[in-house]
Amino acid sequence: MVSGAALVEPPDLNTATPRDLTVQLTAAQKEVMISGKKVLAETYNGSLVGPTLHAVPGQRVTLNLKNDLGTATNLHFHGMHLSPKGSADNIMLSGQPGQTLTYHLDIPANQAPGTYWYHDHQMCSGDPANTRCRGTESQIGAGLSGTIIVGDSRESLPPAYRGITAHTLALKDAQISGSSSIVYPDGVLEPAEPTVRLVNGQYQPTLNVKAGETQLWRIANEGYAIYYDLQLDGGSFTVVGQDGIPSAAPTRATHLLVPPGRRFDVLVTAGAPGSTWLRTLAHVSGTEADGDSYPDTTLMKVNVQQGSGSAGPAATGGPSGMATSPQIAGPLPGSEPDLSGEPIAQSRSVALSDDGGNNFWINGKLFDMKKPTFKKPATLGTVEEWTLTNTSDHDHPFHLHIAPFQILSVNGVAQPLADYMDTVSVPHAVNGAAGKVVIRIRFTDFTGQWMFHCHITGHEDNGMMGYVNVIAAGSTG
Fold first, then answer.
1. What is the pTM of this model?
2. How far apart are CA 32 and CA 42, in angstroms?
3. Which strands form 76-78's sheet, in the order they lie side by side?
4. The dihedral of CA 456, 461, 462, 463: what is its sign?
5. Which of 6, 94, 123, 268 could serve as a FRET partner for 237 with CA atoms 20 to 30 Å apart?
6. What's the rounded Cα separation, in Å, for the pair 377 and 370?
């Protein structure tokens, strides 16, 4: 593959955002170009990185998903606050080959401006006799994911930053066979196999910025299994949003741990003319014996050119490359309130474990569509506290559909107040002591089956998924 080409934004599914919008995605196998190399992949509208859906709060989006694949497929609108029933974010829907699924998405008026994504969420476990059905791991792994941008998170920033340049950076990886096709995972991904890390479907692209310029980067891990530990050599990130939620307390960070499914909206500032790299640091997501080990890998070259960006002499007078990103005061508009003082309707335990092979459990059980994880349902309008434990030897990124949650603590260490996300990495066990994350969730608006699972999709496909029934106040369930 040829590196160094100019970074190209993912294609747009739509540019205008009228009150009623109709768009179409076609899922099909297609030969795509990855930095000069022809590769057979599964695509949305012919693109390895699916086209970006632009939406605004209060909008109704009608999305037609045409299935030109040889397997059943569907969609999940990851992070969006949408009903799990009917023709909304219902992962029980399944479009067979040749069929078209129609989704009706009523974007809530209070949907936070930020970065979300969509991907296949085919529930092959519901039809074990269908040997042609490929599940979530193989379809996302082959390319079936894309970005959703709701509103414009720059509007939540101080006035000086509302007109800055924004870039979408969709992170994916691909294991490419000798016959130039993306290897479809079989069971659980083996990270020891050579993996090509891609930004917007490109191998080591180049982004040009002006000296002193501050930009907004919308970073999304749209892959199927691999962690990223991002570092911008010589610079820093100012986190202004996580998983679509504007930050209550924007912070600077020198690196970002981005498990599958996570998104960050960050500000970065260029220094003096020169060049540097956005890279993913070496990372082990578990014990030495069982954890997945990922090498230090450069992802995107950043060329800093002569210019007169808003950061001024403070940035441009120092070393070449990137500079310290700005300090932003919070809370930003659209951030979520602190739940730590709320009354708790129920406390629940979610135990993540496995047998060291291809069985992955929640509370000791493989996923069963017909049986909720908990006998007692959750009630709309209430707040619950869940304790997530992990007794396995590798980390599990836990994802909840429909709503974000607040992180209270990780392995007993209190987290920043109002730190919301929809996917959190639950640490692996150490010396027999389980990793533990405590979260709080407010259940609002939608009854039905609220799904949760590990977002390493091979773990999800092999049993690490569950759901809680959510009922209206006064209902008996």
1. 0.95
2. 9
3. 50-55, 145-150, 114-119, 76-78
4. positive
5. 6
6. 14
CA–CA separation, 225 and 256 (whole Å) = 17
Contacts of 304 (CB under 8 A, 6+ apart): 209, 210, 211, 270, 271, 272, 273, 274, 275, 276, 320, 321, 322
Q: How is residue 108 annotated by DSSP?
A: -
- Going by their DSSP bridges, the two strands 263-270 and 237-242 should be labelled as antiparallel
What secondary structure letter does DSSP report for 183?
A: P
Residue 158: both structure tokens together: 């101080």
Q: Find the helix or strand (DSSP H, E) in which 54 lies.
A: strand 50-55
Looking at 186-262, which runs of residues are DSSP E strands? Answer: 196-199, 206-210, 214-221, 228-232, 237-242, 245-253, 255-258
Residue 473's contacts (CB-CB under 8 Å, 6 or more residues apart) are: 379, 380, 381
How far is the C-alpha of 464 from the C-alpha of 477, rounded, in Å?
Answer: 25
- In tens, the pLDDT along 64-112 reads 999 999 999 999 999 999 999 999 999 999 999 999 999 999 999 999 9
Please write the tens of the pLDDT for every residue from 371-420.
999 999 999 999 999 999 999 999 999 999 999 999 999 999 999 877 79
Residues 6+ apart with CB under 8 A from 353: 360, 361, 364, 390, 391, 392
Residue 277 φ/ψ, nearest 5 degrees: -130, 145
